[in-house]
Specification:
By secondary structure, this protein is an alpha+beta fold. The chain is built from four helices and seven strands; from the N terminus they run αβαββαββββα. It has a seven-stranded antiparallel sheet, sandwiched between helices.
Amino acid sequence: MHVGLGIICVLLGAIIFTSGCLSSIFPDPVAVTPSPAPTPVPTTESPVETLPLSQLAILPDELPSDYILKERSDRTYLETDTISRDLGWKAGYIVTYYRVNREKYDMTGFSQTIDLYSLDSMNMVFNVKKEDIISQENETIKIYVLPCKKMGENTFAYKTVNEKNPRSLSQYTIIFTRKNVYEELTMGGTTTDYETLKDLAQTAADKIQ
């Protein structure tokens, strides 16, 4: 009886000693608190154009090399039409270029008009401008709608032709709105290139950030 009790005491002591040694070799795992993920900083884009309108104008090196700058200037209130004033026109800018090649009897012009309005009136601005363009069609002047990808929230492209004058020059125009900016780009003359006009319109739209 005493021998059995002694054996049990020895075994218990061995277990206690062993557990103490193991705990010193393999300590209890320390709970690791995960570090919080960094909070993303939201990027806020202004809903309206913040650059000066002059920085939205097509530059000479963005046109074919044979175009020459004719005019680049702010627009005044008196230079705007009644429709623009009624729609709440705020500011404007215009730039014009031309190309002359007497050997090829070529005279072609390009113009870009940039107008600033209130953001909440842009759909009305576009619709009124578009309706005014279409209303100019008559027995002599024909408006042909052209395919064009969207340059902004609204885009409309067309060709103007004088049907009764075979010597009249065709004119291509693209109008679009982006943010609170309305733009009108026109190319007309003896050698017009609608593909170039579309590229210029896209360049103009990309400037509006």
